[in-house]
Design goal:
CATH class: Alpha Beta
Structural class: alpha/beta
Number of domains: 1
CATH topology: TIM Barrel
Strand order of the largest sheet: 7-8-9-6-5-4-3-2-1-10-11-12
Order of helices and strands: EHEHEHEHHEHEHHEEEEEEHHH
Bound molecules: S-adenosylmethionine, iron/sulfur cluster
Shape: globular
Distance between the termini: 21 Å
Helix content: 25-40%
């Protein structure tokens, strides 16, 4: 799959559910309305869709959400998708999770062939953690991280940088990741979906964070890239990677290799744009994969050049109306 700007699409992120056992303040409103179950693709349908993408050249598949590990029987989907790892069609199968269910599933994930997981964790302070996630418990996530380590999974920690909330903690997070052997990626808040509160209050430019971190750590730019919005450095003192995802202050679109699928079968060609292709009716109307393949190609042919996120006082409304939990970030 090659888009109109010559970018090869080899990475599919799939939101397997819009539901979650947390209500992170930057991601969801507390009283979220979730999709009716009837609109959600079955695990078999998700498998068929993902497998069609793999057939079209997707080499990396990431399951996300909502919280992927709260979907009922999710391990049966992951196990089934593992066949593409065994055949060599897929290079990597991975998940982004809040870690709350990882203690239960880490071992099985490793057995299936998952090698790395991204775990979202914004703070090491249990009270702050409870305040940010509204419903989460830090010790459960810590148990999950321990289980991931025991199972031999590589862990990358994702932390959203929040002004006045965790900005005094990045040194501690870096040191902790160094000790426990995790890479760390800091993420700028993105204006997606209505949340309770004001986003301009949360927004912390990572350029500022980076210059502060330089007082304490030796940061060396490295070439490492996943084709996504993260730029990586090595922290010489810990030997671990530190990534910065700065969609608002930098443009990362030229190297974009990914598309995103929601749990209802809607394909978003860009995280920051509304245009999408509804693959569900195509999927359901025919047992043959041909119409589906045609619809996917048609969608890729419309992949836009880039996004246009803005957060400022004049535009204090989401740049994109859907929540991050719809497309999974
Ligand atoms: N529930 C899983 C988790 O938290 O890792 C997967 C889905 S979550 C939507 C994926 C990532 O998006 C998380 O790292 C989360 O912190 C991030 N995220 C959510 N809302 C965001 C926002 N408005 N701006 C930036 N990142 C956001
Ligand atoms: Fe749930 Fe992840 Fe959104 Fe937090 S960031 S509410 S854990 S989907």
């Amino acid at each position: 799959m090659i888009d109109p700007f010559g970018r090869t699409i080899s990475y599919l992120r799939v939101s397997v559910t819009d539901r979650c056992d947390f209500r992170c303040v930057y991601c969801m409103a507390e009283d979220m309305t979730f999709l009716p179950k009837a609109e959600i693709l079955s695990l078999e349908e998700l498998d068929r869709l993902c497998s069609t993408f793999v057939g079209l050249g997707v080499r990396k598949l990431r399951l996300t959400g909502g919280e992927p590990l709260v979907r009922k029987n999710i391990m049966s989907l992951i196990r089934s998708l593992g066949r593409h790892l065994d055949s060599g069609a897929l290079e990597e199968l991975t998940i982004t999770t809040n870690g709350s269910q990882l203690a239960k599933y880490a071992q099985e994930l490793a057995e299936i062939g998952v090698r790395r997981v991204n775990v979202s964790l914004d703070t090491l302070d249990p009270e702050k953690f409870a305040a940010i996630t509204r419903w989460g418990k830090l010790d459960k996530v810590m148990d999950g991280l321990a289980a991931a380590k025991d199972a031999g999974l590589d862990v990358k920690i994702n932390a959203v940088a929040l002004k006045g909330v965790n900005e005094d903690e990045f040194d501690d997070l870096i040191a902790w990741c160094g000790r426990d052997g995790y890479d760390l990626t800091l993420i700028e808040t993105m204006p997606m979906g209505d949340i309770t509160g004001d986003r301009t209050d949360q927004y912390l430019p990572l350029s500022m964070v980076r210059s502060r971190l330089k007082d304490r750590w030796t940061l060396t730019d490295i070439d490492y890239s996943t084709g996504g919005p993260a730029r990586y450095m090595r922290i010489e003192e810990t030997g671990r990677r530190l990534g910065f995802i700065t969609p608002l202050t930098h443009n990362f679109c030229e190297s974009c290799n990914r598309v995103r699928l929601t749990c209802t079968g809607t394909l978003y060609m860009c995280l920051g744009q509304e245009d999408a292709a509804d693959l569900r009716p195509v999927l359901r109307s025919s047992e043959s994969d041909e119409p589906l393949i045609a619809a996917i190609h048609e969608a890729i042919d419309r992949k836009p050049k880039g996004h246009d996120f803005v957060i400022d006082r004049r535009h204090n409304r989401p740049a994109v109306s859907r929540h991050m939990s719809v497309t999974g970030g």
